[in-house]
Every structure is written in structure tokens, then in C-alpha cells.
Amino acid sequence: MKGSLRTRRFRDIAAAGLLSLAASAHAQSIEDLRDLSLDELASVNISSVSKSNQALADAPAAIFVITHDDIVRSGATTLPEVLRLAPNLYVAQNSASGYTITARGLSGNPGFVNFTNKLLVLIDGRSVYSPFYSGVFWDMQDTLPDDTERIEVVSGPGATLWGANAFSGVINIITRRSGETQGLLVAGDAGARERSGELRYGGRFGGNLTARLYLRGLNRDATLTGPGTSAHDRWWRIQSGFRLDWTPSERDALTLQGDLMNGRIDGLNAGDTLTRNRNLLARWTRTQTDGGAFEVQAYFDRSGRDILQNGGRFWINSYDLYVQHNNAVGAKDDFVWGGGIRASRLDTVGNATVYMLPPKRTLLLANVFAQYGWGFARGAKLTLGVKLEKDPYVGTSLLPTARLAWKPGDAFLLWSSVSRAVRSPTPFDRDVVEARNGVPLLVGGANFRTEKLTAFEAGTRIQAASNAAFSLSAYYNLYDDLKALEITPVTTIPLYWANAIKGHAYGVEAWGDISLTRWWKLRAGLTLLHEQFRFKPGASGFLGANQVGNDPPRQATLSSAFNLGRHVSIDANLRYVGTLPRPVVPSYYELGGRIGWRVNDQLQLSVSGMNLLHKWHQELPASVATQVPRSILAGLKWRI
Amino acid sequence: MANIGPSIALFALLAAAQGSAARGAQPIEYAVKASYLYKFAPFVQWPQTAFETPTAPLSICIAGSDPFGPALVEAVRGQRVNGHPIVVRHVEAVRSGLACQILFVGGEESGGALQAVAHEPTLTVTDHNKSGAGGMIQFVMVAGRVRFSIDQAAAQGSGIAISSKLLGLAVSVNR
């Protein structure tokens, strides 16, 4: 349902707008293109660089794009580590395999059984947040860095287009078409704490059919719970997959892709966890002669986790279908509409302490949406959209948005928006039972409703010069019906989930790029966040209102991308994360980076590192997270 | 380029349509095309007859009006492919015997020029031409990128072998 085309007017334009800022900084003349490989040349975006389309300017959202180059040059080996490059995300590691990732706060507070659950994450149009609890199992998501085209990160709600879980932000991970990943690639990175390897082959069959196959494995050693004390959370994952792209005519494009993933996470007391995913996706797009397009996408996704020793496990089979039409009404106006349906079958086997009641559920999610962009004056566009979404528990939610963009010239954009988003209840909110010695301690809230957000945003993007671009966005979020643990009167237990908290948050996100020379580019980012929560009338006030998020009030990033001649690249990414308030985790600085040496067109060698500044450091409270290590890897990449 | 190629493609289509209506092709588009012209060379094998000596220059000929300007001449200065220095030449009228290893013919009226070198070991490059008379490599706009299709049959007919790397990067290949 969270498809790709449907979001075009908003997302792609936004992305293209940003990409144009990025691309124009480094590719404007033949001279600038001289050092690009043939592949790189093929991916230089002309339409955005040319800025010929006024609509490019209409990017009324806080969107940051992590490019293929950023990904490959960062040295990051997993998606969460790559996402640290986005200044508008908060990424914190809690074990060898686990991460908390969010935007604009509300990261949850695991000590209060409140998990991160307000992001929408898509990999090639497939939604990967789990319908079980609406959070993302980051240890089950992977793409080959070399095959990843870009990652679009939108902070702020995108519910009108994306749907119910696009509450705090949207992460859209996009892999390259198979025609762009041809030939054989063998790559590996190895260090004292982590090893990974990958194999990919891309081929062409006939004039208009391309395909690739890949295999990737990753293994990470255990983190620490205290000085010298292993957390016994060693992790490995192996994933394989394929992608077929077929263009039977100039107007039609078909994609078929799928992945198989198996992983295992050591566990000391509860036993090892097995993770598994299988998915298969098909998409057909027809471009119409008037510039409109019609897209149909269907996928199947089977995800499961299985805790070996204590017997808890679950499987979710999801079947998803969506259609979308974009009608290009002309240069000024645009219209997009669509709808989708997803059926998820949840099948759980509980144990004595945690189980679901009922253990099996079929969750139906359906939506229709429409959005109209009206260019009412020169350089000004008003976009109105609405989505009707029916969720499995509560009923139908209305998710409207209004966005205004003004671009008086090529170099300056001003935008603002007001929109509404919800997070719908999940089996984890409604059906869960946690028991001690047969006595229910915590139960799902029978009346738990959607969590609600009304967001006011404004921002600007400035192309200060051909080599410098800047983005600033500010937001004011009004929250209602946020999830909190509530107590049963008189008996206290069982605790249950209720919509007991309301509050507000405001903040600023800023980032900028500057190319000092053709071979040295700097980027800086800053986010400031202020959150204030309080209990609603009638709530017991149990556990404090901070249980919805233990978020850093400040974050900053500074990145440098440096080319030493044509063969050596040096990258460094410094990050600062402010003090977490409750429980307190001290602020910290960390550094990642990579030195790459292109020996020849076939062979590349590298040394990369993560968390270089500390041998061990703590990113989340010690009660719920382990210490993560410095990791240094030697890498080799060989193309044939 | 993206998995959501379709959506981007549509977007590019819009952009291209509006762009050409409004102001014609953009300079960056030609910068990319010019860069391709000399970056193709290492992936192309000409018959021995195409060069008089092992160190004879490899000529990139631009027919008719030159959309690239002096930047292309600058970009190839000092560059060599298999021992052949690359030179850029402008030819007003294409005829046989020009000894061009690569010939770019811009615009719509490429048919005559292509005919003139049809029996020579010349890699012909044109923009995508709907009427059908295109070069061995034709630039096409896909999703806002300059990509190309390859007429491998035509290249082989002139004794030119194109590497699988280049074929792999092509949007389509006519075998």
C-alpha cells in the first residue's frame, strides 16, 4: 500500500528538488563530469539539474536524501548505520543488532515497554514496519550498499499520501534498477568485531530485460553490558534476493523482485532469536502520452521471529495491493489519486509469560486518497490532500493535509504545511498479555485508540550559490491520545495501555552542503527538539509522562567528503547526540569514516570505521541497552 | 535512477516535455552527452583498419552545428585510449574517408550523414530519432538521465565490437 508512484507529486518532486540542489553543486559542465565513471554519468539527473520544471521547486516537506555515493563512501555496513547520515533522524544502537530510529522525538522508552513505533519505512515500495507493533525490526532489513540508489528521509508526517504509520517521518529506501547493477561484484569487509561479504551478478537478457541476483552475509560480535562483560548478543544474518526489470515498450515498465533472509541473534537467558523474511513484489507502471501514469503494485511478505528457548514466536503473512494514478494536469496543477488494501495474518505462539489473546488475527487495512496541487499564482502552489484509512481495530481515520509552496526564483523556496497523522492500534497494543506466575501483569488496552498528531510545519531551501545549498525546517506538533501504561483501579495490576497522554513538541532541523572545491565537500546538520507531555484528565499519572520518548534535545552532524586525486577518497562523519533526559544518558560525540582506494576499474580497497572515538560507548540507558564498540574494517571490492 | 523508476520516469517525462517546450535542451544535458562521447572509447574495439598506426589519433567528429563548444576539446586534451590520443574535429559536411572513429550527428537530419559513413569503421552516435534513422548509439532521456540504446547489429556490420560493460549499461540493445 505504501507504494512508490502514489507519492510522486510530494515525494519525488521533493527528492528531485533536493537532488537538484546537490547535483548542481557538482555537475554543471563537461569539466565537472570528467572524473565520473560511465555508470556515474548514466545517473546524473538532467531534469532536476536543469530546473526546467517549476514543479521541482515545490518540495513542501523536510526531506533529506542520502545518495548512493553517500552510502558507499560512508563505510556503513547496515541500514541503521547508513541512516546516521540523515541529520533529520535520531539513530541509537541498543545491542549488536538492535537500533532505535526516529524523527522529531517520540522514540519511546523501552524501560516503560514503550517502543519506537511511529515511522513508516519502505524498501522498494514494500512497507517494512511490522503490523505486529508498528515498529521496525531493523535487524531484518537489508540492501546491498552498492545496489542502493538512494534513501529519502522525510521528517514530519506524510500520512495523507503514505498512510497511518507515517506519523513522525518516512524513510524510503530505493535500490537501483537491475540494468544499473550489471556484471559481477564481489565485496567483503572484515574487522575484529564484524565481518560482511557480498556477491552480486547482473545480466541482460535480450534487448529490454535485465536482472540481478545477490547474496549478502553479515556477522557481528557481542556487545558489552559492563566493563569486560559480554552481552552475549552475537548476531549473524544472511540474505539473498533478485530483481528483474522489463520494459516491454517505451510506456511500460515491470519490476519483479524478492528477498530471502535468515538471521540469528544469540540470547543468554531467553535463548537465541531466529529471524526470517521472505518477500516477493511485482510492479507495473504505464506512462500515458499526456504525461500521466498508472501504477499497480502487489507484494507478499512473510516475516517471523522465533525465540528458541522460551518458545515465543510469531509469523506475519502480508498481502498488499495498491493502485495509483497521476494525472499531470499541466505544468501548474497536478492531481494524484489511488487506493490500496493490505491483509496481514498474524500467527503467534506465546509462552507462560507473554502471549497474545487471541493468538491469531487477520488485520485488514484499506485506504483511498486524493491530492490536488493548484498552481494559483506564479511560483506559488497550494496542495490539498486527504486520505481515508480503515484500520483493523478502530475504524476509519481521516488524514488531511494542506501544503503551500512559494518559489519566487530558482534559488529560493519557502513552504509551510498543516497535516494530521495517526498511529493505528496494533495487536501489541490491544491483544498482548504479560503474566507472572499465571497472574496478568500487563494487558493490551481493550479501548486503545489511535494516537493522533496535528503538525504545523514551515521551511525554506536556499541554493545560496552553485556550490552551496541550505535547508531549514521548523515544526510545531500537537499530540493527543498518546500511549501510556495505566493502572487498574484498586488492584493496580494488571497494567494496561491507554491513550492517557497529550502534549506538544517544537523543533528545528537545519542542514547545508558546501563544495569548497571540486574535490572537497562539507555538510553540516543540526536538530533541536523540545517536547512537553502531560497526562490527560482522569489518567492516573502512573510512571510519568516521559514514557513516550527519551529523546535527545540536540543533535549535530558534520561530514567531510574529500577526493585525493582520482583514486583515493577520504570520508568522515562526526555526530553529536545530546543528553537523553529520562533515564539520563550522557551526551556523546562519535565518528565514522572510510578511506577508499580505487586501484583500478576492477579493484577497490578500503579501510572504514564506526564509532572511532570510544572503544565502547553507551547510546541508550544501560537498563535497556548495551555498550557498542569501535569497529574498524578492511574492505575489498572487485568488479568484473 | 530508482526502483521507483516509473514514478521518476514520469516525472522526467514531464520535465523533459516542459523543458523542451520552454527553452530547449539544457547545457548540462550536452555536457553529459559530450562526456559520454569520449568515455565510450575504452569500451569499443575498432577493426585494425580504423587506425593507420598504433599511435594514430582517435577522432571524435562532431557533424554540423556543435552543441558542445570548446569544453569537449578541453576535456579530452591529453587523454589516450589504447595508445591513441583523442582529438575532437568538427566536420561541416559528412562524407566518406573522414577517418572518424566516433561521429556525433546532432539534430533530426542525421540520415544523410549516417549513410555517408555506413561502410566505414565509424561508431555513429545520435540523439534518439523517432523516424528510425539513428546511429549505432542513440542517446535517450530516461527518468531525467541521459542514457543510450545500442544497435549492436549495425556496429558489427561495420566491424566494431562493443564491450559487454557498455551493452549492460544500455537501455536497450538491438542484437
Protein architecture, described:
The complex is a heterodimer of chains A (640) and B (175). Chain A contains eight helices and 38 strands. Chain A is mainly β. The longest helix of chain A has 19 residues, at 8-26. The model of chain A is unreliable at 1-28 and 46-57 (pLDDT under 50). Chain B has 175 residues and is of the alpha/beta class. Residues 1-26 of chain B have low confidence and may be disordered. Helices cover 33% and strands 25% of the residues of chain B. Chains A and B meet through helix 1, helix 2, helix 3, helix 4 and strand 9 of A and helix 1, helix 2, helix 3, strand 8 and helix 6 of B.
Structural descriptors:
heterodimer, A: about 650 residues, mainly beta, Maltoporin, Chain A, 22-stranded antiparallel barrel, 5-stranded mixed sheet, 8 helices, 38 strands, globular, disordered N terminus, B: about 180 residues, alpha/beta, Rossmann fold, 8-stranded mixed sheet, two-stranded antiparallel ribbon, 6 helices
What share of the residues of chain A does DSSP label as strand, in percent?
over 45%
Roughly what is the average pLDDT of chain A, rounded to an integer?
86
Q: Which structural class is indicated by helix and strand composition of chain A?
A: mainly beta
Number of DSSP helical runs of chain A: 8
Total tally of structural domains of chain A: 1
Number of helices of chain B: 6
**Overall CATH architecture of chain B:** 3-Layer(aba) Sandwich
Coarse morphology of chain B: globular
Helix content of chain A: under 10%
> Could you state the CATH homologous superfamily of chain A?
TonB-dependent receptor, beta-barrel domain
Average pLDDT over all residues of chain B: 75
CATH topology of chain A: Maltoporin, Chain A
How is this fold's topology laid out?
The complex is a heterodimer of chains A (640) and B (175).
Chain A: H1 8-26, H2 30-33, H3 38-42, H4 46-50, E1 62-67, H5 68-74, H6 79-83, E2 90-93, E3 99-102, E4 119-123, E5 126-127, E6 148-155, H7 159-162, E7 169-175, E8 183-191, E9 194-205, E10 209-220, E11 224-226, E12 229-230, E13 235-246, E14 252-265, E15 273-287, E16 293-307, E17 313-327, E18 334-349, E19 354-356, E20 360-377, E21 380-390, E22 396-406, E23 412-423, H8 427-430, E24 432-436, E25 439-443, E26 451-465, E27 468-488, E28 492-517, E29 520-535, E30 554-564, E31 568-577, E32 580-581, E33 584-585, E34 588-598, E35 603-610, E36 616-618, E37 627-629, E38 631-639
Parallel strand pairs in A: 4-7, 25-28
Antiparallel strand pairs in A: 1-6, 2-3, 4-5, 6-7, 8-9, 8-38, 9-10, 10-13, 11-12, 13-14, 14-15, 15-16, 16-17, 17-18, 18-20, 19-24, 20-21, 21-22, 22-23, 23-26, 24-25, 26-27, 27-28, 28-29, 29-30, 30-31, 31-34, 32-33, 34-35, 35-38, 36-37
Chain B: H1 5-23, H2 27-39, E1 44-45, E2 58-63, H3 70-76, E3 80-81, E4 84-91, E5 102-105, H4 111-116, E6 123-127, E7 137-142, E8 145-151, H5 152-157, E9 161-162, H6 164-169, E10 173-174
